Amino acid sequence: MLDLAPFCSATCKNASVGDKVLYGLYGIVEHSGSMREGHYTAYVKVRTPSRKLSEHNAKKKNVPGLKAADSESAGQWVHVSDTYVQVVPESRALSAQAYLLFYERVL
């Protein structure tokens, strides 16, 4: 979790003084190789879909390739490299040589 409240003005964060502005990490892009060439891989945290996404999917009924995250897989990290996907421990994802990080606001 990352609390950005100390770095936000009250109007920016749309919150009262003392409130937290929390973001959770859900994606990491890692690059291996040189500046001229290399390979990108990603670590992605399996999340439960938002209510809006669930409602949207319920209306569509038939979304090819879409799998819902079950309660057992939510919170797990997966490593994605081209067509290879593997469940990995959180410690491996968090020790990656991050090139780019993805956060979502949780509070």
Distinctive features:
107 residues, alpha+beta, 6-stranded antiparallel β-sheet, 3 helices, 6 strands, extended, cysteine-type deubiquitinase activity, Papain-like_cys_pep_sf, USP_CS, EC 3.4.19.12
β-strand percent reads 35-45%
Radius of gyration: 17 Å
Helical residues, percent: 10-25%
Q: Count every beta strand, where a strand is a DSSP E run of 2 or more residues.
A: 6
DSSP helical segment count: 3
Mean pLDDT: 83
Query: Which sequence of SSEs, written as H and E, runs from N to C?
Result: EHEEHEEHE
Main sheet attributes: strand count, strand direction, barrel closure: 6 strands, antiparallel
| Approximate shape | extended
Poorly predicted tracts of residues = none
Structural class: alpha+beta
C-alpha end-to-end distance: 10 Å
Question: In summary, what is this structure?
Answer:
One of its GO terms (biological process) is protein deubiquitination. By secondary structure, the chain is α+β, with helices and mostly antiparallel strands.
Structure description:
- It comes from Gorilla gorilla gorilla.
- Residues 1-106 form the USP domain.
- Pfam families: UCH (PF00443).
- Its EC number is 3.4.19.12.
- GO terms for molecular function: cysteine-type deubiquitinase activity.
- The protein is an alpha+beta fold.
- The chain has a domain at 1-7 and 25-48 and 74-106.
- It is 18% helix and 37% strand.
- It contains three helices and six strands; from the N terminus they run βαββαββαβ.
- Strands 1, 2, 3, 4, 5 and 6 form a six-stranded antiparallel β-sheet that branches.
- Strand 4 (77-81) and strand 5 form a beta hairpin.
- The chain starts with a strand and ends with a strand.
- The relative contact order is 0.25.
- The model has no long low-confidence stretch (mean pLDDT 83).
